[in-house]
Design a protein that fits this description.
With 228 residues, the protein is of the alpha/beta class. The protein has a single domain, classed as HUPs (Rossmann fold). 37% of the residues lie in helices and 11% in strands. The chain has eight helices and five strands, in the order βαβαβααβααβαα. It has a five-stranded parallel sheet with strand order 3-2-1-4-5, with helices on both faces. The longest helix has 16 residues.
């Protein structure tokens, strides 16, 4: 059976991505990064999801980049924006953007995949219901695919690692429906930018997730402090 490295953050999108990779017949090696986030809730969720979904292997890689990468997700002095409108979420690039994060993650994932002889790397980027991050776009993925073709041994011999992004052009509602269809353990997932006992319901990620469940016609199984 072909093997794939799946980037797993523990959120709705990446957990659904893992289920899609399995449905496509891949043996999944889940890869989670502890990169200096302000909280560990998503790391805990990633471990629970990987365990529940029976991945072949779960790699949790520690990269202490938080002190170097300027983002409100990593640096305590920067406040995570809350309560933004849908128009605001769709405008510009918020300070929750972590500089070059997906370039770093995909580079390491591709290196691991090439070393293991894996066929693909799956990433849960989305360019529809998202916060405008430049490393979540079709243009970015096309460019990174070209890098792998010319910058890796696998690429030079004609078997480049393929970057799979099946959620790229799906709405959040479509992702929720796919998660339900694939029986993803949604109650174990965590999408909120803040840590805590309950999801905040006010950050961009919570609002996009809640919007997706509402439009899909399903109840989100996790608890929220507030519902916008």
């Amino acid at each position: 059976m072909a093997e794939a490295v799946v980037l797993l953050s523990g959120g709705l999108d990446s957990s659904t991505l893992l289920a899609i990779a399995r449905e496509r017949g891949f043996e999944v090696v889940a890869l989670t990064f502890d990169y200096g986030q302000k909280h560990v809730r998503e790391l805990e969720s990633a471990k629970k999801v990987a365990n529940r979904m029976g991945v072949k292997e779960h790699i949790v890689l520690s990269l202490d980049l938080g002190i170097y990468l300027r983002s409100s997700l990593t640096q305590g002095k920067m406040r995570i924006p809350l309560g933004r409108s849908e128009t605001e979420i769709r405008t510009g690039i918020p300070d929750t953007y972590v500089p070059a994060r997906n370039i770093i993650f995909l580079s390491i994932a591709s290196s691991i995949a090439e070393s293991r002889g894996a066929n693909a790397v799956f990433i849960a980027v989305n360019a529809v219901d998202f916060s405008g991050y430049p490393d979540c776009t079709p243009e970015f993925l096309d460019a990174f695919g070209k890098v792998l073709k010319v910058g890796t041994k696998a690429g030079r011999i004609g078997s480049p690692i393929k970057i799979e992004a099946p959620l790229l052009l799906k709405t959040k509602a479509e992702i929720v429906r796919e998660a339900v269809r694939l029986k993803v353990p949604l109650e174990l997932t965590w999408s909120c930018y803040l840590g805590g006992t309950k999801a905040c319901g006010r950050c961009d990620s919570c609002q996009l997730r809640l919007k997706g469940f509402l439009e899909a016609g399903f109840k989100d199984p996790i608890e929220y402090e507030v519902h916008q």
